[in-house]
Amino acid sequence: MVTNLLKCRLSGETLARAVVRLAILLIVLGNARAALSQQNAAEEAAARRAVLARLPPDAAKRVFGSATTPAPGPADAIGTFTKGCLAGAVELPADGPNWQVMRPSRNRAWGHPLTIGFIEKLAAAGAGLGWPGLLVGDIGQPRGGPMLTGHSSHQMGLDADLWLTPMPEQRLAPAERDEMRAADVVAESGDDIDPQRWRPEHRKLIEAAAHEPGVDRIFVNPAIKRELCREAGREAAADHGWLRLIRPWWGHNYHFHTRLGCPGGDPECHNPVPPPPPGDGCGKELDWWFTPEAKHPEPGPERKPLRVADLPARCAALAPPHGP
Ligand SMILES: [Zn+2]
Fold it and tell me: What confidence tens digit (pLDDT) does each residue in 185-239 have?
């Protein structure tokens, strides 16, 4: 079950810590099947209250989680994906010709202009491939930074969660976007996709995303990577270089997570994660994800929350007002 529940807890935070945090969250929610990106408005609010109750005044996630407007100035990603912030963020409009922003009450549709452009372009490209439109999950906060719930990355406005649920034909009301559950495309065992829900267009969409310029990597559930490898393996003549950017990670069974690399014009942006190793990542490296060690990791001690002062100095300067 752990594999179905962990969402977007990427490099910089160990799995063990993620498990402990997740356990706390699940106790709070009393809902063992609630995955983080799945939380509706009431569940999200309860989780935020629980986190806020135990955070110091200068906890970075408390401070950046309170931002309602972007920091002025030109777009600038500062720091790292798991310890950073964003100036000059742009908000993805709630509706576009080929997308709808989900969970609007979270106010997390902010990102680097390059990320917003990437999503708009992918939405249009997906429509041409038979994907009816993107349901866009969390991108980032108005000033980036750590979030009260759900992610350890997404801090520089370069990460975005895109639902694996096809967009419905109708425009959803804001309340519907806060309540609607995403489809889990992974089988209960965690070993494979759910053939009832997985479509050929899922692969086309993810492949199209991997071909977009500037993409550093894309995180998907290991079972999804396994399926993508299988499908690509049936097309021996094709170029499968894109599979290298598709990285298995826990969770990511309701959405896939796209990450752009540091923009060339943002000198304080640092990507500490090495590029994916050569090859398609479909061999032994992928097999590990289906071992008991990977599927049932040992919990470890919880890490102290980041303080504003732990972030780069420019992030402290653009943080909303806060206590000591
Ligand atoms: Zn994510």
Answer: 999 999 999 999 999 999 999 999 999 999 999 999 999 999 999 999 888 666 7
Q: Which residues of 18-51 are buried (b: 16+ CB within 10 A; e: fewer)?
A: bbbbbeebbebbeeeebbbbbbbbebbebbbebb
Residue 65 forms part of a structural domain: yes
**How far is it, in rounded angstroms, from Cα 253 to Cα 165?**
10
Read off φ and ψ for residue 126, nearest 5 degrees: -60, -40
**Residue 38 CA, ligand 1 centroid: distance in Å:** 12
Return phi, psi of residue 221, to 5°: -60, 145
Length reported for the chain:
324
**C-alpha to C-alpha distance for 257 and 255, rounded to whole angstroms:** 7
Q: 263 lies in which domain range?
A: 2-318
Which residues crowd ion ligand 1, with CB under 5 Å?
A: 8, 161, 257
Ligand 1 center from residue 257 Cα (angstroms): 5
Cα(246) to centroid(ligand 1), Å? 14
Could you tell me which residues come within 8 angstroms of residue 13 by beta carbon, excluding any fewer than 6 positions away?
82, 152, 303
Question: Is 310 inside any structural domain?
Answer: yes
Question: Is position 323 within any domain?
Answer: no
Q: Which amino acid is located at 177 in the chain?
A: R
The total of structural domains in the chain comes to: 1
